[in-house]
């Protein structure tokens, strides 16, 4: 089963574990309903759409309310420490959680006791904690954007907010940052770097770069990184190898954005609606004729 | 376009390294409140990254002249703020990212500070998107800011709790400076 671990921006949202369905553009889990907006709900929207296209069962969501104080995240960490081995998860994606190294380590130790160990994917706050803990290499895939890649490349930074200027500098190319992240053991086995160009890297080498179609406005839209992580999670869970899943997810995210004809004011829900068509078009040659 | 965060010239030279201490709080939101309180009282303080031995995750600390500890703690007490720890430091602390990036999309303007981006409709001054970041207050901040006019929206420093929230505050302040003067 595919498990998605994250938070929703409502501090009264209780710890909720259940299968996720999409109904009328909203996420349903147990008796809770969540708007499909940025953050983990956007990731879940992309996961559900991808599972529908692939004919996969619904994912299991492990969600809690957290508005940045960390109370909800710690409740969820504690649940995972005790229960993750009983959930039957073969792929787990960790997302918007309060970065906390101690709790990260407790959850990772619990995951390491599962045989066979699930495929582990991390993004957002949990990826920050994974890097800071020095255990990045235990993960199969990180999905940083280019700024977060600079953070992974900076062996001293505990959070992207502290990435040193000489590493963050625009002249640094993705390849240099990827090399540096692997050199200091701060990268997962695979990296899917999201940016103007997307890159798939493995053990310090770029395996593939994805460039088109390009929509400048995507940079401003909150959630466009969450959708790519959602798609790649479902694709990996379907059995696709990680490199191919990264390429397909990156291409599909670009196509979904392109089909939405976005402006910087576009909301992520509009882009998620185009994911099924985008996934079905990934292997078709792209042309302006089939772009609308 | 990149440019450095604008810093006020300091009234005094920074003291020697062995004269500094750091105030550690439970939450970044408390650091932000303490920073506002101490700066408005005229103290020469800096928001910095904690030394490795006390890092837990999403941390900020306040660096202050150690000799002023009692006065500074009194100022904080008057604002109902109590640091979790007060620690002397003698090694360099991490400095926050200090670059802004401004991108003009024609009808929209985007400001990035560190890992957070804020986009505004230039005609209506409505905040249309918040992106970047990975801490759990980012979706919460986005929900509370998007759709509001720049002059009416809450400050991220007032409702955010993490380093991502702090970075968004910097973008928000710069956007206000660019759009409202």
- How are the strands ordered across the major sheet of chain B? 1-6-7-8-9
Instruction: Please report which band the strand proportion of chain A falls in: under 5%, 5-15%, 15-25%, 25-35%, 35-45% or over 45%.
Output: 15-25%
Cα shape of chain A = globular
Overall morphology of chain B? elongated
Main sheet strand line-up of chain A = 4-3-2-5-1-6-7-8-9-10-11
Helix and strand composition category of chain A: alpha/beta
**What is the end-to-end distance of chain A?**
35 Å
What class do helices, strands and sheet pairing of chain B give? alpha+beta
Strand content of chain B: 15-25%
Low-confidence stretches of chain A: none
What profile does the largest beta sheet of chain B have? 5 strands, antiparallel
- Give the SSE order of chain A as H and E letters: EEEEHEHEHEHEHHHEEEHHHH
Query: H/E series of chain B, N to C?
Result: EEHEEHEEEEEHHH
> What fraction, in percent, of the residue positions of chain A are helical?
25-40%
Biggest interface between chains: A-B, 60 and 51 residues
Mean pLDDT of chain A: 93
How many helices of chain A in DSSP terms?
A: 11
